[in-house]
Amino acid sequence: MATPIAHSLFGITLYVLFTQKAIQLKEWKWLLFAPLLASLADFDFIPGLFMGDYNSFHRGVSHSIGVTLIISLLLWLVLRKGCSFSGWKCFLFLFCLYGSHLVIDFFTRDTWAPHGAQFLWPFSSDYFKSPVDLFLDANRTPWTRVFSLHNLITYLSECVLFGTPLYYFSKWFGKKEYNSST
Ligand SMILES: [Zn+2]
Questions:
Q1: Average pLDDT value for residue range 167-171
Q2: Nearest residue to 8 via CA among 137, 82, 146, 100
Q3: How far is CA 108 from CA 25, 68, 118, 181, in A?
Q4: 0.85 cut: is pTM over it?
């Protein structure tokens, strides 16, 4: 599955696209929130830690359209007043942030059976996976493989594939803002 690098960079890209503004440090709360929500589905390893196998629940219902809707709705109810966008756009932003995780994982190489995730829960409990891999996977078992050459290549490819569009979108919106203010 993809690493937090890919999910976080794509989360910040969604923030830039929704706000149509360049990255600004004064928006640090959203710049922390966006990557966190985009990576949240992988926190499903936590209940597994108590059972001695952190993979017990990994890529289960946390990676599903059902949980994406529930989390987006709950967060929307809590955050809608402080959200940078009004009404449905705030919900859409939250939905896209959490849901982006599913899309990226769907297109990521996965050698760990069962392949893919329960993306369609509650409509189906089957695991689905794209037949085409767009992104490399990272090995986490055993933990020493976190620092392997394979993983290093994955980290670097994610930085390039997800960092490049983020850089150019942010630059483009910054330029647009500058032109409209002069
Ligand atoms: Zn995941």
A1: 97
A2: 100
A3: 31, 19, 14, 41
A4: yes
